[in-house]
Design goal:
about 260 residues; five-stranded mixed sheet; about 20% strand
Length: about 260
């Protein structure tokens, strides 16, 4: 019963709770009587957890596996003389000011964070992560358009003026804008865009860094102005680069060989 989709046939539930499962077992005449404690024990013994869910996203890209292999090979075996840079944007980052200051941590008491806040607009973070060293190049701007993405590419080119740059990016429209394509063409092969499969942003290593940035720099921040938050993000990036190391990228999916 716990693994059956019949839960949707009983009331408006989308998944089972222990008490509801016990009630349905009696109502549907599977048993004469059963307690929720017994149901809980049986579910635990069978390692069934109806309250949990693991999400997945199907990619409609017909060349999904081919593109995954190409991206992972760039991480594991980058071409000689080329630098692999993972780029993306974290847009609509809110500038939030807590109404009251946070309470400090004390023995037996965690940090107290004010739940309400004032909004002071948003900003966009554009960043590129060097897959070989783990170092990050970032810019913070008010908006995220192809102009800002082009600015990031130009900053990356100035940081590494020699050799080839392979830019790993998703299929966002600003990444395929005619202005971006024209600039890449003008680089005469020194810059190449390697696009991820559709619905596969998890392949982009910069997402790992954005997660670290969110948890360590942004989640508890209380700021009033764009300049304050932009400065905070910039300092975090510089601090990161002082001790940066590459992510240990592993791939446990299908074999990479043909």
């Amino acid at each position: 019963m716990a693994c059956s989709p019949r839960a949707e046939l009983w009331g408006v539930r989308t998944h089972w709770a222990v008490r509801a499962l016990a009630h349905a077992a009696v109502e549907w005449s599977f048993v004469r009587s059963i307690s929720k404690s017994t149901v809980h024990r049986w579910l635990s013994q069978a390692d069934l957890k109806p309250h949990r869910v693991r999400r997945w996203l199907h990619s409609p890209d017909p060349e999904f596996r081919t593109k995954v292999r190409q991206i992972v090979r760039l991480y594991l075996h980058p071409p000689r003389g080329a630098r692999v840079i993972c780029v993306d944007e974290k847009s609509q980052q809110q500038i939030l000011e807590r109404v009251h200051p946070a309470g400090p941590m004390a023995p037996g008491r965690p940090t107290r964070l004010e739940q309400t806040y004032r909004r002071h607009g948003t900003l966009a973070i554009l960043a590129g992560l060097d897959a070989r060293t783990g170092r990050v190049t970032l810019i913070v701007r008010r908006r995220r358009r192809h102009q800002e993405f082009l600015e990031l590419l130009q900053v990356l080119r100035r940081r590494w003026p020699r050799g080839r740059l392979i830019i790993v990016a998703d299929n966002l429209s600003i990444h395929t804008h005619p202005g971006i394509r024209a600039w890449v063409t003008a680089q005469a092969g020194r810059v190449r865009l390697a696009f991820l499969p559709l619905h596969a942003s998890w392949l982009n290593q910069i997402e790992l860094w954005f997660s670290i940035l969110e948890r360590q720099c942004l989640k508890r921040a209380s700021v009033r102005t764009y300049a304050h938050l932009a400065g905070r993000i910039g300092r975090f990036g510089r601090h990161w680069d002082r001790t940066a190391r590459p992510f240990r990228w592993t791939f446990k999916g299908y074999p990479l060989r043909r």
